[in-house]
Amino acid sequence: MALSAPRIASAALALGCTAGTALALAPPAAAEPLTVQVHCVIPLDQPPVDGPQQISLDGPTDPVRPGDKVRIKVTLGGSPATSPLPFPGTPLTPSIQLVLSGGAAGELTLQGPKMRVDIPGTPAQIVVPPYEGEITVPLDARGDIMIAPGKMVTSTAIFGDQITTCFPASPAPPALTLKVDLQDKGLDGPSGRADSQSPAQAPVSTLAQTPPQRAESPAADPAALAKEAGKATGDAQAAPAGDDDGMSGATIFAIVCGVLILAMAVATMLYSWRRHEEDE
Q1: pTM higher than 0.85
Q2: Which residue has the higher pLDDT, 58 or 23?
Q3: How many other C-beta atoms are found inside a 10 Å radius of the C-beta of residue 137?
């Protein structure tokens, strides 16, 4: 049965709307994992091995700010390192070094949790289950940060703690980009530091006002100084007067003593003269 033009148009419109809805609701495509050539150093006196290693890094898609803590998921493929014997339920602790570039430089270590893994024997590859860890966005970040995988360290509890370390044979390309929001960066700039120091400057201004307050004190008032000087002069003049009174009393006492001594001398001379007259 032939369809009329209006029906064909309606069907095409409905098909287009359905396709548009499907595209709008489709989740974003996952990033393809990196394949990195690594060199692995194996414990228990086994020779080192080289081979490909798949690595995926997943982080937040929303912008982050310097100083924020973010969680990153690590997904690894089969490792070139193998075990000569199977060890089921082996305690294993993974970690990976993250190499930063772009808006920040340096290296951060992401530590995974301790887990139990069934380690197969050769030739099967050892697969570390996906794990997550937390890192801190550098405070000096100046833009979006690209993260590339670096050294991977796996600690297993087999006959003690055994360490397997795999290094990228050459620097790996970035596997994740963190969008960094720098809108609040100005708060840490020169103006922010000046504002933060303003409370510390308050005591300085208070000290600067202290000399005028001392100038207004009675000790610095000219009239008060004159008054104090007059009082001191009066005290100084009063002291000699007291000393004169003291000297007059001493003089009188000396005169009295002298009179008494003279009287005794006269009495002694009279007594001696009378004895001399009686003897004659």
Answers
A1: no
A2: 58
A3: 21
